[in-house]
Amino acid sequence: MTGADFEIDETQGGAATLRLKGDWTTTGVGRMSDRLNADLSGREISALDVSELGRFDTAGALALAQASKGGVPDGAWDQRPEAGRIYKMVEKLERTSTKKPKEADPFTRTFAKVGRGVYDIGAETILSFAFLGRLMTAVIAALKHPGRIRWPAWVSQAERAGLDAMPIVVVTNFFIGAVIAFIGADLLTDFGAGVFAVQLIGVAVFREFAVVITAVLLAGRSASAFAAEIGSMRMNQEVDAMQVMGVNPFQALVIPRLAALVVMLPLLTFVAMLGGLFGGALVCWSQLNLGPAFFVQRLNEDPMMGQHLMVGLIKAPVFAIVIAAIGARQGMAVAGDVESLGRRVTAAVVQAIFAIIFLDAVFALVFLELNL
Questions:
Q1: Residues 298, 198: contact at Cβ < 8 Å?
Q2: What is the pLDDT of residue 354?
Q3: How confident is the model at residue 341, as a pLDDT?
Q4: Contact 326, 355 (CB under 8 A)
Q5: φ, ψ for residue 25 (rounded to 5)?
Q6: d(CA 1, CA 165)
Q7: 5 by DSSP, 3-state: which?
Q8: DSSP per residue over 144-170, as a string?
Q9: Measured between alpha carbons, how far is 8 from 14 in angstroms, rounded to an integer?
Q10: How much is the pLDDT for 170?
Q11: What does 174-234 look like in DSSP terms, one character per residue?
Q12: Total-model pTM
């Protein structure tokens, strides 16, 4: 086998006779095509000499078609008709192949991206409202027929979402309470009002931090678990099988998880309050020399502490409904591949945390208007 080569004989009028030499094959062409393109640039092929041409395949035909831009004259392949058939087939494909679509300019791409984002938000909103309607229907049906509730599933979900989360909830709120106490002790001592750090810890823990931190932890823990569990069942077509067998997926999958969080989140919030107060009490004892008995006495003497406690506990069931609904909604929306599952699990966590922060702000405005 010899490498592909060529010679160009100049003729009058700028035309040229192209003489092909050697094997014009996949392994023989190599980088010769670049040299052929450069030498034939601006020239018209008036004749083709294939007397020294060896083997000829589609790679050689493509190199010749691209360099000549289809300008090989008719009858040039009379000596090698089999090579002529290969060349004509490749030249036709090269000439008729679809050109790469023109890429839009950055300004248009930016607006297109914004438009797709708005469309996705609108579609997601519509699907979320549809899910909410089905969820409300399932809840009403469960309340009318409590016997249909799958109590073993409810107990299992309550254990996994509630009891198993208790250690991390208590420890996290313990440190939150300690941080509040450190900040309060440092600031209030400068004004000679260090004793009021107890009230600061009580208000912050009862009213905001215990319920919000607990809800955020459950959003990252339970909402992702709900989305992954239900999404995996969607991928394995188990949800479709349940529908075929006459089992309502909302009654079997969503209601037990929703009921478990509605019961367990207020309990976890109360435990989180105790953990936060314990952390704050230890810091007050060590930094301000305010013993545990004095700490509890100061809380009991404040008549507003009970109201702050109720404000925090009122938020918990609402946060629980939002976390469970978002987790189940994203799980039900899994398409059928692993990428979709990962995307939906991430969306469940992000949306649940955003919803908690948003609802907490709404609660703050409502309680402010109600003077609570």
A1: yes
A2: 93
A3: 86
A4: yes
A5: -125, 180
A6: 73
A7: strand
A8: H-GGGS-HHHHHHHHIIIIITTHHHHH
A9: 11
A10: 92
A11: HHHHHHHHHHHHHHHHHTT-GGGHHHHHHHIIIIIIHHHHHHHHHIIIIIHHHHHHHHHHH
A12: 0.67
Taken in order 315, 320, 323, 329, is the CA torsion positive or negative? negative
Distance, in Å, from the CA atom of 359 to the CA atom of 367, rounded to the nearest integer, reads 12
CA-closest candidate to residue 45, choices 33, 37, 56, 53: 37
Strand partners, 45: 16
Task: Please provide the size of the chain in residues.
Answer: 372
User: How far, in Å, CA of 269 to CA of 205, rounded?
Assistant: 10
Instruction: Identify the pLDDT of residue 52.
Output: 84
The predicted pLDDT at position 13 comes to 63
Strands 15-24 and 44-56: parallel
Distance separating alpha carbons of residues 261 and 222, to the nearest angstrom: 9
Amino acid code (one letter) for 359: L
Contacts of 368 (CB under 8 A, 6+ apart): none
| 29, 62 Cβ separation under 8 angstroms | no
Gyration radius of the chain's alpha carbons: 37
Sheet holding 15-24, edge to edge: 5-10, 15-24, 44-56
Tokens of 61: 């035909």
Distance CA 13, CA 86 (A): 30
Amino acid (one-letter) located at 286: S
Q: Which two tokens stand for residue 3?
A: 């490498």
- Residues with Cβ within 8 Å of residue 308, at least 6 apart in sequence: 202, 203, 206, 207
Per-10-residue mean pLDDT of the chain, 372 residues long, equals: 76 74 80 78 79 84 80 79 84 74 78 89 86 86 80 85 88 92 85 84 90 92 89 85 83 87 92 92 87 87 88 92 90 81 90 92 90 79
Q: What is residue 213's predicted lDDT score, i.e. its pLDDT?
A: 93
- The pLDDT value recorded for residue 173 is 92
Burial letters 133-152, b for 16+ CB under 10 A, else e: ebbeebbeebeeeeeebbee
Helix (H) / strand (E) element for 42: namely: none
Q: Using CB atoms within 10 A of its CB, is residue 254 exposed (0-12), middle (13-18) or buried (19+)? A: buried
Alpha helices of the chain — where are they, by DSSP H? 26-29, 32-40, 58-68, 81-96, 106-144, 151-158, 166-190, 197-203, 210-218, 224-235, 238-244, 249, 255-287, 292-301, 305-332, 338-369
